[in-house]
Amino acid sequence: MSVHKEVKRVTTHVLQAMKARGEKIAMLTAYDYSMARILDEAGTDILLVGDSASNVMAGHETTLPITLDQMIYHAASVVRAVKRSLVVVDLPFGSYQGNSTVALKSTIRIMKEAGAHAVKLEGGEEIAESVARILSAGVPVMGHLGLTPQSIYKFGTYTVRAKEEAEAEKLLSDAKLLQELGCFAIVLEKIPAQLTRRVSEELIIPTIGIGGGPSADGQVLVTQDMLGITKDFQPRFLRRYLELYDLIRGATEQYIEDVKSQSFPNEKEAY
Q1: Given pLDDT bands bounded at 50, 70 and 90, which one contains residue 1?
Q2: Considering 46, 174, 185, 263, which has the largest number of Cβ atoms within 10 A of its Cβ?
């Protein structure tokens, strides 16, 4: 008789305990059922249904075009696959900025229609009202500071943020404000490693780094980048664990060749 091992779900409480005991948090992006199932079974702590789906899945240049409906579609697909990971969904551009009522409505749609576990918003002080309102409805919120891709046209570039003292101080006070409001974690994107260390040490809640060095309480990468499915994106912080682009292309070329040469399907592959 096989003993069915119960899978323990990762919750915001579990993440807090991980930080407290110094265990690093592993986070990856997921946008579809098949991939999410693999990542969940592998033991990923957090799956982020990122608005990076705009780039990775839809081929847009920025994260701005993706809609709330599209995010809900991706999130629902991921949630159906997951038994263990905490599923966090990005609120897309235009679904929360400047209006906390709209932010709450967007969040409620994500939670109800996709069955997500938490949402993520970019920004600090300027979105405090939206964060507070979402939290007051009982929905966990993850913050995102540093390089905030939804503000790409404001920055004009994807370079490292918070190198200047003033911007570094603002980032630290924004991080403390997000913690005070009740966020359960904060993503720190492309900021100097020293600043990541400072923020991580001064906060009680976990920090998740991307391009912020090793001191964050966890790390996140875009799965398609980590697996080498995307070819043209090569930032310094990215480690490719596979070169799937070449492997998939090779397999596809072999398939095409086998079909053309009539070696596929063979007799064993026919009914």
Answers
A1: low
A2: 185
